[in-house]
Write a structure and sequence with these properties.
Blueprint: E1 5-8, H1 12-23, E2 28-31, H2 35-45, E3 51-53, H3 57-62, E4 69-72, H4 78-87, E5 96-99, H5 105-117, E6 121-128, H6 130-136, E7 139-142, H7 146-159, E8 162-163, E9 166-167, H8 177-207, H9 211-221, H10 229-239, H11 249-252, H12 262-273, H13 278-291, H14 293-302, H15 314-347, H16 353-359, H17 371-380, H18 391-414, H19 419-432, H20 438-449, E10 453-454, E11 461-464, E12 472-474
Parallel strand pairs: 1-2, 1-4, 2-3, 4-5, 5-6
Antiparallel strand pairs: 6-7, 8-9, 10-11, 11-12
Helix pairs in contact: 1-6, 8-12, 8-13, 8-15, 9-10, 12-13, 13-19, 15-18, 15-19, 16-17
Bound molecules: 6-phosphogluconic acid.
Residues 102, 128-130, 186, 189, 259-260, 262-263, 364-365 line the site of 6-phosphogluconic acid.
Domain 6-phosphogluconate dehydrogenase C-terminal: 178-467
Catalytic activity: 6-phospho-D-gluconate + NADP(+) = D-ribulose 5-phosphate + CO2 + NADPH
Subunit structure: Homodimer.
Length: 475
């Protein structure tokens, strides 16, 4: 046995991860259900490093040095379970199975517990950066046992993106922690993209500008606080012209956003854990709404349209939208990190939030300049109650709040939907407001259902005899 690590499942992500590993000097065992894929990988890229190709799973396992490390890169759900089931009897105690797909963290917890009974380490590992990242340096979020990371750490850190000499890979925490953090990463990715889309929509309506001009605005923004991969590719996509029609590409794409499910999982998990990730939720629902073509067409026919905004000072408006985008983005990240905090507490993972910001600085889809600021905020105060209260972000949001309000008000008056901008501003306002009208909700609950309430001035729970003498009683 000569291979340091193996990859089974050689579709584009598995193929690129295998090549990345080989390029970094690791001997890589290869396996794919249809042998053709394995052969073509070796034929096309065999000179990039040392590959050991196998035609059967048993042969593949046999080619790996002990303790074996096997990356499973197949579709999430049943296909992953099927491969694990086939693999388990071929492995020995101490071997490591790594799932680098976008699995639900609950599945990862279940698989980890099952394999642990066999003495096998199961590592649910988030990998971000798409196809190119997998090949050139992704952000890697491995969960699982600390022991498994002793073997995997040096390998994964060698193939991960590097920022200022630091690899974008760290042991996230036990069992499902890696996949949980990757799920939240994707939720933030949804919010980031929705915010960018709202900014684009507002600028287009407000300035009456065409996509090439808007591309330039985003390109300019990419040299400031907003510098990030998603802003950079927004400029590219807006500048792109459709080959067949000569129209701006963005005008020939059907306006219905799809999703594979990680955003939905993020919102479902947040509901279960009671964490208000409103920006991510609005972003996820906005995709759903866009897909309801029949309802949208009925609404266009039945409901009058009053959309259009009046902009007097173009430069001011562009700056307002930029600041609103930045402030809303801070909220989305603050909420995402709150969900990581809650998941970590619920499952006992002890996730280091500053370390998550560090490994998201490069390789992944949400890589951005301001992740350095997030890391600094958690370095300064590891128990930070919300990113929004870290001095840097508190100042940044405060500086932009008037712009933010103007943008949300302008959008509302002009009939331009900005669910993520608006809900993020509402979150920012709600977090600071005292009292919240939640007091009235408690009163209503006590009135119709005797659900009781707590008082501002005394401990304990109380109930009013609403149907009788309206006297208050301790509950
Ligand atoms: C990444 C991406 C990747 C994938 C998304 C797409 O980090 O590299 O997040 O995992 O592109 O899952 O998700 P949707 O299809 O749900 O938009």
């Amino acid at each position: 046995a000569t291979a340091d690590i193996g990859v089974t499942g050689l579709a584009v992500m598995g193929r690129n991860l295998a090549r990345n590993l080989a390029r970094h000097g690791h001997v890589v065992a290869l396996h794919n259900r249809s042998v053709q894929r394995t052969r073509s990988l070796v034929a096309e890229h065999g000179d990039e490093g040392t590959f050991v190709a196998s035609e059967s799973l048993a042969e593949f396992v046999g080619s790996l040095k002990s303790p074996r490390a096997v990356i499973v890169m197949v579709k999430a759900g049943e296909p992953t379970d099927a491969v694990i089931e086939e693999l388990t009897p071929l492995l020995d105690e101490g071997d490591i199975v790594i799932d680098c797909g976008n699995a639900h963290f609950a599945d990862t917890r279940r698989r980890e517990a099952t394999l642990r009974e066999h003495g096998i380490h199961f590592v649910g590992c988030g990998v971000s950066g798409g196809e190119e990242g997998a090949l050139l340096g992704p952000s890697i979020m491995p969960g699982g046992s600390a022991q498994s990371y002793q073997k995997l750490g040096p390998i994964f850190e060698s193939i991960a993106a590097q920022v200022d000499g630091t690899p974008c890979c760290v042991h996230v925490g036990p069992d499902g922690a890696g996949h949980f953090v990757k799920m939240v990463h994707n939720g933030i990715e949804y919010a980031d993209m929705q915010l960018i889309a709202e900014a684009y929509d507002l600028l287009r309506a407000g300035l009456g500008a065409e996509p090439p001009e808007l591309a330039e605005i985003f390109r300019t923004w990419n040299s400031g606080d907003l510098e990030s991969f998603l802003i950079e590719i927004t400029a590219d996509v807006l500048a792109h012209v459709d080959d067949t029609t000569g129209k701006p590409f963005v005008d020939i794409v059907l306006d219905q956003a799809e999703q594979k499910g990680t955003g939905r999982w993020t919102v479902q998990t947040a509901l279960d854990l009671g964490v208000p990730i409103t920006g991510i939720a609005e972003a996820t629902f906005a995709r759903s709404l866009s897909g309801h073509a029949e309802q949208r067409s009925a609404a266009r026919a039945a409901l009058s349209q009053e959309s259009g905004i009046q902009v007097d000072d173009r430069e001011q408006f562009i700056e307002d939208v930029r600041r609103a985008l930045y402030a809303s983005k801070v909220v989305a990240y603050a909420q995402g990190f709150d969900l990581i905090t809650a998941g970590s507490a619920e499952y006992g993972w002890d996730v280091d939030r500053g370390a998550m910001a560090t490994i998201w600085r490069g390789g992944c889809i949400i890589r951005a300049r301001f992740l350095d600021r997030i890391r600094e905020a958690y370095d300064a105060d590891p128990d930070l109650p919300s990113l929004l209260v870290a001095p840097y972000f508190a100042d940044a949001v405060r500086a932009g709040v008037q712009s933010w309000r103007r943008v949300v008000a302008t959008a509302a008056l002009g009939g331009i939907p900005t669910p993520a901008f608006s809900s993020s501003l509402a979150y920012y306002d709600a977090l600071r407001r005292l009292p919240l009208p939640a007091a009235l909700i408690q009163g209503l609950r006590d009135n119709f259902g005797a659900h009781t309430y707590r008082r501002t001035d005394r401990d304990g729970s109380f109930h009013v005899q609403w149907a009788g003498d309206k006297a208050e009683h301790p509950a």
